[in-house]
Amino acid sequence: MSTGIDDDLTGLHNRRSFLALLRRHIGLANDQRTNLGLVVIDIDAFARINATHGFDFGDRVLVHLAQQLRDVARRQDYAARIGDNRFALLLTRVMNKGHVELAIQKLLRLLETPFASGNTRVKVAVTAGAAVCPMHATHAEFLLRQAEISLEAARALGHHSLFAPDHDTDNGLSQLWDLEIELVGAPERGELSLHYQPKLRARDRVPVGAEALMRWHHRARGTIAPDLFIPVAEQTGQIRTMTMWALNTALRQAGEWTGAPLSVAVNVPATMVTRHDLPELVENALHLWGRDHVQLVLEITERSLVADPKHSFTILSQIREMGVRISIDDFGTGYSCLAYFKDIPADELKIDKSFVAGLLTDPASADITWLIIDLAHRFGLSVVAEGVEDEATFQALRDRGCDIVQGHLFAQAMPPDAFKRWLRGALGLAA
What we know:
By secondary structure, this protein is α/β, with parallel strands linked by helices. Helix content is 43%, strand content 23%.
């Protein structure tokens, strides 16, 4: 029976009791002038484990990791489950960062042995972020945020683990480190903008719409790459505010476009696809900014559907009933399953640019591309190829029946005013 301080599944401390422990031991460390280490651990691709092997197996993986953390912890240390697949390890009375690093490396070594249950064996890969009190913070909540941001920085950089940067160092990680705080209020400060990359009908190169791509121009740092700030926004929860800003802004700006009926595509992150309030948020944006000549398209990644297809299908179906089109982005790179594909609530598939780039040189990329086009058409979906860079690739796609193309061969992503000028020219309209 749970004591109220334990996680029911793993028997570790739950988030609430762990935060109480963290506050108490940080107080002791500050009073006694000792060091305390905090490690936050995420299981990589946990949604895929659940989708592939089932939720019961996923639960057994969580219990397995909990046991490995117990094996790493000393008698005076504490382990906890603080999220769905997020764990924490509190290391009291450590001498320095090196001792925390040794604990992380011990955990990684223990996890090198695949986890086996029944006839299934999986390698449980994790990413860890670490921080030390008082070096990185002297308050519980802030130390936890330091460790969590370090985890996201490790994931963005492709590392297994990463420490919070020291306050007196400038090793390049400090810039990544500050992004979470600096993203707060970026839309209100006018630092975010949308650029538009045209989408053209393949058979005659006539523009049919554009994809809205978010840009961040920091007041001091200049332009920050989306590959850097989007993952941080997703993991810290700020992506919801940013996505709704993008949705409203894209509809407002697209309402100023002239010419034939056009579509505007907005990317929706996986964390929002299963939210119950997403249909309401979309409906509100359409009520404020929707125009008859503008077709809203929501682009979601194929991976967004994996964790809970039934629930996400319900949400997307509600949105489609509003007249919004759904596009499955990066198709072919996720975990495609024909069992659910026949019921997928979508209107469009986007072939990932990695396949388009290898179309003329890699037979496997070509085979996958042609298969996607054929599959989509059999189910009544249109096909978009992104990342079209040369004329020969475009001709091959057009000859095989690809419906829509987008890429630098036609135009790069442009600020709103530049896109409006390009659009008028491409449609042969007077300035």
